[in-house]
Amino acid sequence: MSEIIAERIFDLNQDGIARNIRISMEKPCRCETGQDWVCHIVIETPDEVVKRPAYGVDSYQALEIGLSKMQVLIENLALHYRGEITLYGSANIL
């Protein structure tokens, strides 16, 4: 398992029930090709654990793309679960 370098726990509010969604970022590492880098985003929802890659030409770009991709993934989760995702009680999560 790769090293987790950052994580955040959001609340999913769905029909008056609050559940947690944990999103973590793994430490960037070189791809098997040896040229590009990848940073995996791990999403733990009440139903499943999903791992999504973010690629870059170097570790910094992989992190940067991973953070941008994370924003889209969170927005998609709200649509998927037909609920509101909050952070520390606020809908302004970004």
From TrEMBL:
InterPro entries hit by this protein: DUF6968
Entries under Pfam families matching the protein: DUF6968
Residue ranges constituting the DUF6968 domain according to the UniProt record: 6-89
UniProt superkingdom: Bacteria
Protein name according to UniProt: DUF6968 domain-containing protein
Organism: Capsulimonas corticalis
